[in-house]
Amino acid sequence: MTHYVQVQLALRARPRTWLVTGAAGFIGSHLVETLLRLGQNVVAMDNFATGYRRNLEEAAAPAATGRFRLVEADIRDVDACMDVCRGVDYVLHHAALGSVPRSLDDPLGVHEVNVTGTLNLLAAAREAGVARVVYASSSAVYGDCEATPAREEETGAALSPYAVTKRVNEEYAAVFARAYGVPSVGLRYFNVFGPRQDPRGAYAAVIPLWARELVAGRPCTVYGDGATTRDFTWVGSVVQANLLAATSADAGPCAVFNVGSGRAVTLAELHGAMAAALRRTGRFAPPAVHAPLRDGDVRHSRADVSRITRALGYAPEADFERCMDATLGWYLRRLGAPAAAAREHAA
User: Fold this and answer.
1) Which of 19, 40, 133, 283 could cross-link to 184 by cystine, CB 3.0-4.6 Å?
2) Cβ atoms within 10 Å of 337's Cβ, excluding its own
3) N-terminal to C-terminal alpha carbon distance within the chain
4) pLDDT digits over 251-265, tens only?
5) What per-residue confidence (pLDDT) applies to 5?
């Protein structure tokens, strides 16, 4: 029996109350879904600036209504943060403005949400006496560090305002642990993917963006020569890391862990895997086209997950093909038919 299975059994036996910020987003909605499936009480906080109500509709089954409460509020509102933290055991903080390109376009807005919002939440968690805050950090904190795989203790110069905000989050969490006794765990995510990841807009991540193009029968754009590598991490592995980090006594008063698959995949290999998944559904995948590398993009990225594996018993999903089939299947259901595509555009 894995440690994660033991944690799930313990939670079923003794339900807790969890606050999930950014609950209507991609990762947040998967956290909500898993927690409700485990019989937990969930307070979901979102301002719907980037999240979608339909994500929560998929995540929160009608049978869980009595254990689920939605609070429509903004983490930049410190009073709202104080209100939602009352009576909460654990905080899973995922409200943020993501994306390196977005931060280059709007550094002030990204700072206000990612830094001030996180500070508000840490202060509220201190006031409420929560057992632990688990917050989303990012592999972007490694910046121009060329060490591969990336290890938690080695970082380089930040390459974007987004990376700076995540570093500041880690510093604030460390200070709150030392000065105020607020336990926390930061999770440095590496290119998370799966169902419900937003495929629209200028700041869409590569897998949902390519899924949108492939489903529409259009070629994907590869930035660079296709040799750029990323550690693509199944969203279920991220959910596992959050529950382990929140509940494990071995996490310590203030820790930071990589959360990835531990494998490097080139963009060319990714396109091949996505095209193969599409072909398994009987559809055609056009060849990719290439464009220059973008400012702020890291050339190579892979997580060393040995620290989180040793400390928390983390075991990332290894079946990349299965995960890609599940991901493409969701996008086909959401975007595959013309009527569905029209509804998605209008939502």
Assistant:
1) 133
2) 12
3) 42
4) 889 999 999 999 999
5) 96
Cα separation, 154 vs 165, in Å, equals 18
Q: Which residues are catalytic?
A: 162
Summarised one tens digit per residue, pLDDT across range 229-253 is 999 999 999 999 999 999 998 888 9
Tokens at 252, concatenated: 């310590």
